[in-house]
């Protein structure tokens, strides 16, 4: 699908159930969490560190955004790229975003080697994502409308015809309204309101 018309993305709405993968005495606990900003990552990690205080590593990866993507992968003391990137690879494989996947490792006394670690972290992340309820969300574009009260009926008719969502409204002599629509219809909606007489429309950043 053309990225310009792609207006949906996959994510999770609830944290996953805990999963456990064992390899040569080491235990790997996997979790997936929905997030909407980087500031949510640290509290989740601190909660898991408190819960698994005897563990050796708390490795993770996250991805945010559907159009402008940001991500991070953290090995937390494991050999370079042996934990965070295999976890992030599964986020990419499942095509999900706005998500944090954490794998907590208890060392079992036997070293797994880089190849063994990559496999273990990848498998645990995969198990956590398989336990997650992945859902599709729509990318919505928000606009601000300003118009005189006498034009309210015209505005409401256009909102109904285009199946737009009203986010907020202030109805006085000078009315203000915030509306939203699917990304793929945004250009058409903008042009309709812009060409309408006595209605000011601005896209919200």
UniProtKB/TrEMBL annotation:
One of its GO terms (biological process) is regulation of translational initiation. It comes from the Bacteria. GO terms for cellular component: cytoplasm. InterPro entries: Impact, Impact_N, Impact_N_sf, Ribosomal_Su5_D2-typ_SF. Residues 24-129 form the Impact N-terminal domain. Belongs to the IMPACT family. This is YigZ family protein. It comes from Flavobacterium magnum. The lineage of its organism: Bacteria, Pseudomonadati, Bacteroidota, Flavobacteriia, Flavobacteriales.
């Amino acid at each position: 699908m053309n990225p310009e018309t792609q207006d949906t993305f996959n994510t999770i709405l609830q944290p996953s159930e805990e999963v456990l993968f064992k390899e040569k005495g080491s235990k790997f606990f996997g979790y997936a969490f929905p997030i909407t900003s980087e500031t949510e990552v640290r509290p989740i990690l601190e909660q898991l560190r408190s819960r698994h205080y005897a563990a050796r590593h708390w490795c993770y990866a996250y991805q945010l955004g559907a159009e402008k993507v940001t991500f991070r992968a953290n090995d937390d003391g494991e050999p370079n790229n042996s934990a965070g990137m295999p976890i992030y690879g599964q986020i990419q494989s499942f095509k999900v975003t706005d998500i944090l996947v954490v794998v907590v490792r208890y060392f079992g006394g036997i070293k797994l080697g880089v190849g063994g670690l990559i496999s273990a972290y990848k498998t645990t992340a995969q198990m956590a994502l398989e336990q997650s309820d992945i859902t599709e969300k729509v990318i919505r574009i928000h606009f601000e409308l300003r118009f005189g009260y006498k034009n309210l009926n015209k505005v409401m008719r256009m909102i109904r015809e285009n199946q737009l969502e009203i986010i907020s409204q202030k109805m006085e002599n000078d009315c203000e309204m915030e509306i939203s629509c699917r990304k793929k219809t945004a250009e058409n909606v903008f042009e309709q309101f812009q060409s309408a007489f006595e209605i000011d429309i601005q896209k919200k950043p």
